[in-house]
Amino acid sequence: MKTYDEVAKVTYEGPDSREPFAFKYYNPDEMLGGKPMREHLRFALSWWHTLCADGVDMFGGSTMDKAFGKADPMEKFKTKADFGFELMDKLQIDYYCFHDVDIAPEGATWRESLDNFQQMVDYLAKLQTQYGKRLLWNTANNFGDKKFMAGAATSCSADVYAIAAAKVKAGLDAAKKLGGQGYVFWGGREGYETLLNTDMKLELDNLAHFMHMAVDYKREIGFDGDFYIEPKPKEPTKHQYDFDAATCMNFLRTYGLEKEFKLNIEANHATLAGHTFQHEIRTAAVNGAFGSIDANQGDLFLGWDTDQFPTNVYDTTLGMYEILKAGGFTKGGLNFDAKTRRMSNTFEDILLSYIAGMDTFALGLRKALALIEDGRIDQFVENRYRSYRSGIGAKIVAGQTSLKELADYALTVPDFTVESGRQEYLESVVNNILFR
What we know:
single chain
């Protein structure tokens, strides 16, 4: 097998290829459904997992050195950036995502940290121009440091709240400078462990004030990217305020923010919430809030966020089916919030993992388009709800009836039958498309 340095560019060779460092299903400029695959999928590299994660888990230390031989903090982060853009170039990935602490070393004070961050934003801007890459979205790590142990925008400390706001302001300035397509609010510790020490109403109100201030600042600086909230049910906080897509929409509507935010749906977060990936995408879409995707998968036998590269074609097919039905991406995309397994600890493994994930979503796209073109599922759903297209059903949909009218109508119904949902048949249709 080739070494990392021997791979100049990962290219499409088709499903019959046995070359490990080649795409089998992802052909970036192939036209499908009216646009190139790269625009359907809008793949992005996750800075934190790809360039920072080194194999540490709760039971063991590092298995991979990502210091790149550098001791000086700024030189180390610049070398990480160089490697990241080179990696994107090899993989033909057009976008990237980062937290603030992913790209720059933290200083002894917030002022020092801000200076380091701004220097690295300038450095990334130069690399973007050199390689022709773009920022999909960025965010602030307002959960890792001990000062955020009780939350950030929901902290019991007003000083911590102010620091969190300063970090978000710096992040929005960076997004504007780098031409970011969006900005994510990931509430890693926005929740509580016990109500015995929690003023839930104050915390939710403060979180909403925080979001409104961010919206105001976005307009002040002329940032035209999308704002996203990323639902997450647990880990690390037992009771997260952003539990799932429906919970997030309830929060946004309660505080008049529903027109300002979309949702960034993560596959692994969906399963931790007891939902399917496609359920969370559909929920976001029917609420007019579909935005972007964190592409990964979890281990259903483990109760935490394992952030594995996606390789389940059923999930990617049904996920892409929902994305296409929602109109596809506008400013969002598929960010690989995924890391190589602890034992996959070489730079070659990073390439191979991205190839696997990109091919899996590319195959999912191909099969989702085939499902739509086949039409059997759409036709079945349309037929199943045909009673709402005429008569009393049409009046229900139009909101032109009343409880009394419906009660009177019910007295005239001699008999009725609820037709079979034919779930097994529809699942066999999916298999027929997947394996033809």
